[in-house]
UniProtKB/TrEMBL annotation:
Taxonomic source organism: Nocardioides soli
Annotated family: Belongs to the ABC transporter superfamily.
Residues covered by the ABC transporter domain: 7-238
Any Gene Ontology biological process: L-amino acid transport
MF-aspect GO terms: ATP binding; ATP hydrolysis activity; branched-chain amino acid transmembrane transporter activity
Taxonomic lineage of the native organism: Bacteria, Bacillati, Actinomycetota, Actinomycetes, Propionibacteriales
Residue spans crossing the bilayer: none
Protein name stated in the entry: Branched-chain amino acid transport system ATP-binding protein
Keywords: Amino-acid transport, ATP-binding, Nucleotide-binding, Transport
PANTHER family attached to this UniProt entry: ABC TRANSPORTER ATP-BINDING PROTEIN, HIGH-AFFINITY BRANCHED-CHAIN AMINO ACID TRANSPORT ATP-BINDING PROTEIN LIVF
InterPro entries, per database record: AAA+_ATPase, ABC_transporter-like_ATP-bd, ABC_transporter-like_CS, BCAA_Transport_ATP-bd_LivF, P-loop_NTPase
C-alpha cells in the first residue's frame, strides 16, 4: 500500500492586495485521501488551492505537507516538493503536441522518479489517440485530461484540482472520474478537489469541506455530508 503525507492548514488567511478573502481556515487531509472543497462562486475555493500551491495570493498561517512547510516556499519550490495544481483554465500549450505537453510535467519532478507517457495512457485511455495532436485542437474535456496527466508526470504527492468537471461533456466527466480513481489506486497521492458539481465530487472523494464566504462551514466525511442535506441547502444552493 502506498503511503503519503498529511496536509494540514492552520489559521490560514489570504489576501489579494488589500482584499481579505480567507479567514482563519483550519483543515486536515490525511495522506492518500481525497478532499472535496465545495462552495458557491467566490466562496474562496480557488484561493485555498493557490494558498497551498503558493501562487498569486498573499497568506498568513501555516500550510504543512508531511515535513514540508509550504507556507515558507515559493511556487516553484512547492512544485518541486511534490505539489501540483491543475488550474481551472488548464494552461495547455497550444502549439505543442499532447505528448510534448505531458513531458513538460517532468520539469517539476524534483528528486522523485519520473512517470512515463505510457503510464498516463493506462490511466486515461482517451489520451492514446491524442498524443500527436496539437493543444489548440483539443476539446475542453481533452484539455482537462491532458492537464491532469501532465501534473501526474511530475510524480506529485499532493494533487490540487480546480473544478476538473467544469464545462465538460458527461462522457468526459466520467473519464476524468475514472482517471482519478485509477490515480488513487496506483499512486500515493493526496488529492484536494475544488468543485461546484456536488455529484461529481461525491463520486470521487472521501471527505468534504464546505467554504462559505472565506470560512469553513463544514468539514467531515462524505457520508456525513450526504446525511446532512441542510448543509447543501444552506451553503451550496444558489
Ligand atoms: P469560483 O468558482 O468563481 O472560482 P471560488 O470559490 O474559487 O469561486 P475564489 O476564486 O477563491 O472563489 O475567490 C474568492 C474571493 O476572492 C472572491 O470574492 C473573488 O472575487 C476574490 N478574488 C479572486 N481572485 C482575485 C484577484 N486576483 N484579485 C482580487 N480578488 C480576487
Amino acid at each position: 500500500e502506498p503511503v503519503s503525507d498529511r496536509l494540514t492548514v492552520s489559521g490560514l488567511d489570504a489576501w489579494y492586495g488589500t482584499a481579505h478573502v480567507l479567514f482563519g481556515l483550519d483543515l486536515t487531509v490525511e495522506g492518500g485521501r481525497t478532499l472535496a472543497v465545495l462552495g458557491r462562486n467566490g466562496a474562496g475555493k480557488t484561493t485555498l488551492l493557490r494558498s497551498i500551491a503558493r501562487g498569486m495570493v498573499t497568506t498568513t498561517g501555516e500550510v504543512r505537507h508531511g515535513s514540508h512547510r509550504l507556507d515558507r516556499m515559493r511556487p516553484d519550490q512547492a512544485a518541486r516538493s511534490g505539489v501540483q495544481l491543475v488550474p481551472e483554465d488548464r494552461r495547455i500549450l497550444t502549439s505543442l503536441s499532447v505528448e510534448e505537453n505531458l513531458l513538460l510535467g517532468h520539469r517539476a519532478c524534483g528528486g522523485r522518479e519520473k512517470r512515463s507517457v505510457a503510464e498516463m495512457v493506462e490511466m486515461f485511455p482517451l489520451l492514446e489517440n491524442l498524443l500527436s495532436r496539437r493543444g489548440f485542437a483539443l476539446s475542453g474535456g481533452e484539455q482537462q485530461l491532458v492537464a491532469i496527466a501532465r501534473a501526474m508526470m511530475a510524480s506529485p504527492t499532493l494533487l490540487l484540482l480546480d473544478e476538473p468537471s467544469e464545462g465538460l461533456a458527461p462522457r468526459i466527466v466520467q473519464e476524468v472520474g475514472e482517471g482519478l480513481r485509477a490515480i488513487k489506486e496506483r499512486y500515493a497521492v493526496t488529492v484536494v478537489l475544488a468543485e461546484q458539481n456536488v455529484n461529481f465530487a461525491m463520486q470521487n472523494v472521501d471527505d468534504v469541506c464546505v467554504i462559505d464566504d472565506g470560512r469553513i462551514a463544514f468539514q467531515g466525511g462524505g457520508a456525513e455530508f450526504q446525511a446532512r442535506p441542510e448543509i447543501r441547502d444552506r451553503y451550496l444552493k444558489v
